[in-house]
Each structure stands twice: as structure tokens, then as C-alpha cells.
Amino acid sequence: MNIVNIAAILAFFIISGIVVAAPLPLQLIVNNDTIQCASFLPGDECMDCTPPDGWEILGPYGPCPEDYTLVTVRSNCQGFENERCCTKWHSGASGDCQNLVKNDLTRECALVDDAANRTLLSGWMKMPENAASWLCPHDYNWTTLTGTIPAKVAQYGPVNVASVTNEADFLASLGNNVSGWTWLTQPGQSAAWTFYNLPTNRRLYIYLTPLVTRPSGNGGGSGYSTDVRITYETRTRNINSTVSLKNTHPEFQMPADTMGWGYQAIGYLMIPADKIPFDGKVKVTLTKSANAEHIAVNKECCTIEYV
């Protein structure tokens, strides 16, 4: 920002009747290699400025040294990242507000580290690309946002995988528990997973990776698929859908006991963005249908994924 631009900004605030804090005293800078001088504003309480390379501060603004030419140069300026300098209608120059996030539902603002690369909690927005201005409205409250990337969300490049980590957020019907898996063997038995802090502005995908088998004697065979009912909460009601759990090894389907090999199945269901609850909390319930296959579930076999 050069001296002409800073002067224009200050003039605007004065004409508008807005009180501004006084900038630091005007300085004279010189470049002894090019035999030039220029006026220089070091900044104010919201911006720090340094002379361009090759220039040095001579002192409070005065006449150019003899034989030096007066020119206009662009200073190196960096706005300060703080609440006051990122609030609309603040006094002073522009702050550094790239890490400002705001929530129009709660009328709050916050500053977070590396906001552009964060997955924000529900309702929070980051600075849009190519935004000309990004400031907190003057009637919003400032808060501290600590959970910008919930601990239960892992990132794989652009893909986010939310999983259940608390035991209280996974509930299953009573059934045989084998090696950490609970078997649902009767129609109507169910399991439920509760997810928090999900984004509300994009599609979400419920991914299921339970075990499926068809009983045979004391064990069960491999390669079997089955259908289940999936229920999830929306902004207005619960939605029920039938999801096919496809076995990953259908080529080895057999009734003989395979001791757990070939039981893995997978299925998914998409939640439209306009159905996601405003608080980012989604409860997913899997219910066994009246079919011959048994289904084993655990805390980790249901995730919600999104980009």
C-alpha cells in the first residue's frame, strides 16, 4: 500500500465522520543507489509497513536530500490478525483476516489457525476464494472456536471420514459377541451410531462394512449378501431406506463354515445436503430384515464420508 492509497483511505473515514486512530508519523525514506526519496507511512494499530528492498528510513518526513528525485513507492505492508482489526467499521487500515470464520446462525466470529485448510464445524463459514473483503459484522460476537476439525474425523486427501469414537455413541441389540462383533440374528434387532459436527452444506455418504453370513451348523458360510433397513435423522423427520449389503467375495459363496473368512460386506447411502440437521448431528440406525442372513456390527463398521 503506497502513501496515496493510505491518504485516500484516511480521507474517506474523516469525511464519513468515523473516528480513526492516528497512523504512525510520516517518514522519509531514501534509496542511495537510485538517488531517490519517497514518503512512507509505517502503518497504524492494524497494519505494519516496511520500506521496499534497497530503501532505508531517513527520519520524520522532510525535504528530499539535494539532487535526489521524489518518487512514489509501494511499501511492504502486513495487517495484524486480531478481533478488532477484523471487525467491520474498525478504525485503522485493513487487518489480516484470512483466518476469520463466521457463523450467521449464531451471529459469531472467530479466528482459527490455517482456516482455508480446515473442516469447520456445522454453520461456520471460511473466507470465500477471491473475496474482495472478509470482515466480521460489527454486531456479531467474537468467540473461541476450538473444534474446527473434530478428533473423530480423519482426512485422506480431500476425503473426510467421520467415525464413532465414544462407546456411548454406539448401541446394539443384545446378541452374541464374538471377537468384538455383535451378531444380529433376529428380525428387528438393530444397531445405532451417532455422529457429531458434520458439515451441513454438502452431501454426506453413510458407509457400512458389517459382516454377513448364512448360518450352517455351528458356523456360517461365506459370500452372502443381504438387505437391511437404514434410518437416519433429517432436519424434519426420520428417513427409512433399504440398503443392499454386497459381499466382497460372492465368487466364493458356500454354505460350509469358513470360520469368518468371506463375511465382509459393504453398502452405502447418500444424504442430500438439504436434509442434514442444522446442528450437524446425525444418528444412523441399521435394522435387520426378515431374511436368512445374520449380520455382525461394531463401532467401526459405520462411517460418514464427504469431500
Task: Please characterize this protein's 3D structure.
The structure is a single chain. The chain is mainly β and 307 residues long. Helices cover 5% and strands 38% of the residues. The chain contains 1 helix and 25 strands. The protein has one helix at residues 3-16, and strands at residues 27-31, 36-40, 43-44, 47-50, 56-60, 69-70, 76-79, 100-103, 108-111, 141-142, 153-156, 159-163, 170-172, 177-178, 181-184, 190-195, 204-208, 211-216, 219-221, 226-233, 238-247, 265-271, 282-288, 294-297, 302-306. Strands 11-12-25-17-22-21-20-23-16-13 form a 10-stranded antiparallel sheet, with no helix packed on it. A 5-stranded antiparallel sheet has the order 14-15-24-18-19, with no helix packed on it. The longest helix has 14 residues, at 3-16. The radius of gyration is 31 Å and the shape is elongated. The protein starts with a helix and ends with a strand.
Give the neighbour order of strands across the main sheet: 11-12-25-17-22-21-20-23-16-13
Distance between the termini: 38 Å
Percent of residues in β-strands? 35-45%
Helix/strand order, N-terminal first: HEEEEEEEEEEEEEEEEEEEEEEEEE
**Radius of gyration (Å):** 31 Å
Low-confidence parts, pLDDT < 50 over ≥5 residues? 1-21
Please report the total strand number as a whole number.
Answer: 25
Mean pLDDT: 86
Please count the helical segments: 1
Shape: elongated
Which structural class do you get from the secondary structure elements? mainly beta
Fraction of residues in H or I helices: under 10%
Q: Note the main sheet.
A: 10 strands, antiparallel
